[in-house]
Amino acid sequence: MSRIQIPLDVITSRLNIADRFSGFRNTSLSSRFANMKPIGEFLDFKRLSKPANFAEVQSRVNYNLSTFSSNYAAVFVLLSIYALITNPLLLFDIILLAGGLWLLGRLNGQDLTIGTFTATSSQLYTGLLCTCGFLFLIASPFSTVLWLIGASGVVILGHAALLDKPIDEAFSGEAV
Known about the structure:
Elements: H1 8-15, H2 17-22, H3 29-32, H4 39-42, H5 54-67, H6 69-85, H7 88-106, E1 112-114, E2 117-119, H8 121-138, H9 141-162, H10 167-170
Antiparallel strand pairs: 1-2
Helix pairs in contact: 5-9, 6-9, 7-8
């Protein structure tokens, strides 16, 4: 049997993935969300259509990822919040870890003394790490992250592939 070879470099070069992610490092958070498109333009159901072929899918995804990148970032944040709310043990573990680190930081490296019991800061950090690490493994963070990757991929790439370009943008690349 012969192996099927897929030219991944052709697909990734047409989507400009490396150029798209290089811009994330250079922009601040406030300027990143300053260019969000209105919700009416983002959810324009009149422009939803099935693409004719894979070249049109690539063209739509390339255009929509650059146009609606801030909206897609907001969708990812909302899906992340939803994932944490639906996994309360993971949310509790994150809050416990953040609160524990904050409280241990307030000790300024001094020992904690409660009555006759004394614990050094290294013992407290070890106890916090063991407790949060055990809860972290029980809370199934890997399945939550994989769900988040899958759900955001389906929602974002599905929207980008199905939302057609505006009429004026669709004819801008054609020769007259």
